Amino acid sequence: MSHRKFEKPRSGNLGFLPRKRCRRGRGKIKSFPKEKVSDKPHLTAFLGYKVGCSHIVRDLDRQGSKLHQKEISEQVTYVETPPMVVFGITGYKITVTGLTTATSVFAQKLDDGFRRKLHKRWHTGTRKSYTKYAANPDFDKVREERLKVMEEQCTVIRVLAHTQPTLLPQLNRRKAHVVEIQINGGSIADKLEFAKGLMEQKITVDSVFNKNELLDTIAITKGKGFKGVISRWGVTKLPRKTHKGLRKVACIGSWHPARVSYTVARAGQKGYHHRTQTNNKVYMVGKDATTEQGKFSGKTEFDLTEKSVNPMGGFPGYGWIKHDFLMLKGAIQGPRKRCITLRKSLIPVTTRVAREKVKLKFIDTSSKQGTGKFQTVAEKRAFMGPLKKELEKKREEDLKRLAEERKKQEAAEKLAAEKKAEEKAEE
């Protein structure tokens, strides 16, 4: 067994230390993409909620590859992205210590979903936040003064936006997720004009991302709890007859220095870490299920079946997609229902794979609970035939109809007999 490897010190980058539970429950944007002044003002991020996975079939368009113009199957992940609401503008100025907030402007009407975020106990609180701010008689005057300060002093303009979790009942959440989104492109005056136009308005995901675009996902990974060194760091198990267990690290260091080095694999928390995944390709920007485009989002040029992207029975542990959504290539971090921060790609990629135009041929909508065989309910009914309860219901209806016909026939015969008796009596 010369191929066998007996030594494996560790798997896992020490740059991600300490491996402990993340304090925040949403991915934080620590850097925004570099901007071009020549571009029009645009938003650079959005928030969504992870739904689940499926697979698609498409033709690969990659010159030189052995799979060029051949069908391939790929995993995709859905992220539901209901409209977000912009409720504020923040301006930053450059100082010797970095960016510092110059001033901020908030909307006069603030949603309760955002205000809940600022209270520990919303239902018992008597003094609600931003009440005096909105009731200020000089509200418009103060806002214009602050916007003027932003235009004169600031170099970076960002809008404050929050999600609408009440649109997704399966989240069982009324407190909104809040994010600061940088505006890139144009001059400061253009950015402020763009931001003022968004105030108290709903923004949709198709105004930020497009099909075939690359984006970064920032989120908290799925938590695994307290794990040992084998699971957490991937070290090699000790031989079978090892004293006091074999799922361990045999030597955790020399006698001196008389302490355990941070590079030694140790047991502890695994998962629920803040991670950024770069350059995920957008395969589809889906519309609301109430629109015709959203209702038949699973229909393609090659598969003319009128269906949505929702699998039969819905996504396990989530339900049905009813609002705008993104279809991303591959897998992304986090469990279902977790808030995913979507950001425009920080490191632009110009490879041939990144520039490839995707044309979907088939979107799988079979049941994800077990081994799904059918794409739609109609297809299943056509194959399986009528159900037993339907046959019983039909039989009851037929018996009822026959009883009514018999009753009508008896009544008609009775009426005819009475008429005949009357005619005889007259004779």
- Taken as a percent bin, the fraction of beta residues is 15-25%
Mean pLDDT: 93
Shape: extended
Helix content: 10-25%
Total strands: 15
Structural class: alpha+beta
List the uncertain runs: none
What is the H/E string? EEEEEHHHEEHEEEHEEHEEHEHH
End-to-end separation in angstroms reads 118 Å
Main beta-sheet annotation: 6 strands, antiparallel
In short:
The chain has helices at 112-115, 131-135, 139-153, 188-198, 229-233, 292-295, 352-355, 377-384, 388-426; strands spanning 42-43, 45-59, 71-80, 84-95, 98-106, 156-162, 178-184, 202-203, 214-220, 225-227, 268-270, 274-286, 325-329, 339-344, 360-363. With 427 residues, the protein is an alpha+beta fold.
Account of the protein in words:
The structure is a single chain. The chain has 427 residues and is of the alpha+beta class. The protein has nine helices and 15 strands. It has helices spanning 112-115, 131-135, 139-153, 188-198, 229-233, 292-295, 352-355, 377-384, 388-426; strands at 42-43, 45-59, 71-80, 84-95, 98-106, 156-162, 178-184, 202-203, 214-220, 225-227, 268-270, 274-286, 325-329, 339-344, 360-363. Strands 1, 4, 5, 6, 7 and 8 form a six-stranded antiparallel β-sheet that branches. Strands 2-3-13-12-9-14 form a six-stranded antiparallel β-barrel. A two-stranded antiparallel ribbon has the order 10-11. The chain is extended and about 130 Å long.
